[in-house]
Design a protein that fits this description.
The protein contains 22 helices and 20 strands. The chain has 566 residues and is of the alpha/beta class. Strands 3-2-4-5-7-6 form a six-stranded parallel beta sheet, with helices on both faces. It has a six-stranded parallel beta sheet with strand order 11-10-9-12-13-14.
């Protein structure tokens, strides 16, 4: 979209004149820009903000948000704060908010903003700004923050003129409109304290238009002709109304279903039609190559790995909006109200030739192909996940899992069962390390009574280890499980595949349990399955965060990667 930017001193004068005029007519109608922003967050259902504040507008906004009963959660790194905000937006179907100081704060946050952009999370990034008069001579910490984040955000505003209230309203709506993503407010102290007459706070997101009757008719014909359809659910299908409609359609078609990483739980793992994960790689091909129609429901091309689309089969695509770039040209594309589109196809759907026993064989074959076949010492990643599943089954509420990027994610996503949308959180579009721990903290704050398990590699945890202190401070009910193999294992695999000497990807195994205890949490170590099971029982039994440092065997990763991606 065209970004909103207003910067001139004349505009600021106009804003103050408008405020004075409004105050003369109705003093109660005039509030500060910071207060207007906080009220807008409240109207969008924001329950908490995350970040590391600077000494400028951030302080005004934190105070204004407190008056709206929106607490501020102090993170240890700006990137982690944006991860927390993005995870909150996904879980609560609302807006995430992250605050940073100017200069190094916004630079640190950039990776988190990239995650929000590529994983389609509506997040408002609020950075301290440089006053116009300072830009004439100040070089210390200064760079063009708008330019830094411009490729990643859907809009930008300085909120420094009479249209500040309208800018707030519009940008927050833009963040939540499909395709969802971050927006950027760059706010000076003077602008935050400026008085404005706020715009009306209606904040009703425009309903998505219904799909055209012609597109729906073509979709119904394709479904009616198909005898062996396969459904693939993507991140847009996580919305409760879409997931409900999709489960109904799946029952009607009685066909195999696969899900992307982001869509884990949209189709429950214990559904007799569920087969496994779809990434655009090899593992799912045994199922999809038997189909005569591939039905993509809410799949975003950002979710797939960088490989050509391997199928000639006809595709029926259903989604909120058309994607400019895609791996495949659909025979029929239906865009608009996704839940309505899926429901509209229900009446014409009928079972084909798939048998439940056949689907079960495909599911079992996929699990067998992804099974971890290690030959070294330590637990296998699959053992780590499956033992956690057994321990979790004893809890009153099924835990959510957050998963970091890295080789361990193949076992975590394949063998951790999910039953509802957002039972698993992962950075997939960006595939960033350092995500699982901050996302787990956000999950625990969103649902305090429910445990969250953070599956992370040692490399990913090292990128955000300070957030263990955040977990302790917030009393987050999380169990961090560290796959400790002393390496960047996924990169190590690629180095081995190219027959290069090992360099720059390994380090001495560290004692993460000791680090957790040093930060005030409970830390356990495990190098055997018995020790690991005991650590799980203790971790789930106690209050607040716990960490289990598990010595894992990395020898089976190459074969598992080949089975997943080809």
């Amino acid at each position: 979209m065209k970004q909103v930017t207003r910067t001139t001193d004349q505009a600021q004068g106009t804003a103050q004149a408008a405020a004075r005029a409004a105050a003369a007519n109705n003093p109660a109608r005039v509030i500060s820009v910071a207060a207007a922003l906080a009220r807008a967050f409240k109207a969008h259902g924001v329950k908490r903000m995350f970040g590391l504040p600077g000494g400028g507008s951030n302080l005004d906004l934190i105070e204004a948000a407190q008056r709206e009963r929106i607490p501020f959660i102090l993170a240890r790194h700006e990137c982690a704060a944006v991860f927390m905000a993005a995870a909150t937006a996904e879980l609560e179907a609302t807006l995430g908010v992250a605050l940073t100081t100017k200069g190094p704060g916004s630079a640190n946050a950039a990776n988190g903003v990239a995650h929000a952009a590529l994983d389609r999370a509506p997040v408002a990034i609020v950075t301290d700004g440089f006053a116009p008069q300072m830009r004439q001579y100040v070089t210390h910490q200064w760079f063009d923050q708008k330019a830094l984040l411009a490729p990643l955000v859907k809009g930008h505003s300085l909120l420094d003129d009479a249209l500040a209230g309208a800018d707030i309203e519009r940008l927050l709506e833009v963040a939540r409109e499909p395709r969802q993503g971050p927006v950027h407010f760059e706010l000076t102290s003077a602008a935050a304290r400026a008085m404005i007459a706020p715009s009306a706070s209606h904040f009703d997101l425009n309903p998505l238009p219904a799909a055209t009757l012609a597109a729906l008719a073509r979709g119904r014909r394709l479904l009616a002709q198909a005898r062996r359809p396969v459904i693939v659910a993507g991140l847009e299908a996580r919305r409760p109304d879409v997931a409900k409609a999709l489960r109904s359609l799946l029952a009607r078609l009685d066909c195999p279903a696969l899900v992307t990483y982001k869509a884990k739980g949209v189709i429950a793992d214990d559904d007799v039609r569920f087969v496994g994960i779809f990434t655009g790689g090899l593992a799912e091909q045994a199922t999809v190559r038997q189909a005569d129609l591939i039905v993509l429901v809410g799949l975003d091309p950002v979710e797939l790995i960088l490989q050509p689309w391997p199928y000639d089969t006809a595709v029926l695509e259903l989604g909120f909006t058309r994607h400019r770039l895609h791996y495949v040209k659909a025979r029929c594309a239906v865009h608009g109200d996704l839940a309505g589109s899926v429901a509209a196809l229900h009446d014409g759907a009928r079972p084909g030739k798939w048998q439940h026993a056949e689907i079960a064989q495909l599911r079992q074959a996929m699990r067998a192909a992804l099974a971890y076949k290690g030959a070294g010492s330590g637990l296998t990643p699959q053992q780590v996940v499956e033992a956690a599943v057994q321990a979790a089954a004893k809890l009153p509420h099924w835990p959510r899992a957050t998963v970091d990027a890295g080789a361990h994610m193949f076992s975590a996503t394949a063998f951790w069962p999910c039953y509802k949308p957002c039972d698993l959180l992962i950075s997939n579009g960006l595939a960033s390390m350092g995500f699982a721990l901050p996302a787990a903290i956000a999950s625990a704050l969103s649902e305090p009574r429910r445990h969250t398990i953070a599956f992370t590699g040692d490399g990913g945890l090292l990128m955000c280890q300070g957030e263990l202190a955040t977990a302790v401070d917030t009393g987050a009910r999380i169990v961090v499980i560290v796959f400790n193999d002393g390496a960047l294992s996924l990169i190590d695999i690629k180095q081995q595949q190219r027959k290069l000497p090992s360099s720059g990807v390994r380090w001495a195994r560290l004692d993460f349990a000791m680090a957790m205890r040093a930060m005030g949490g409970r830390g356990y170590s495990a190098d055997s399955i018995g020790a690991y099971r005991r650590a799980l029982a203790q971790a789930f039994a106690g209050d607040g965060p716990a960490l289990i440092d598990v010595q894992v065997d990395p020898s089976g990763y190459p074969a598992q990667l080949a089975a997943m991606r080809g």
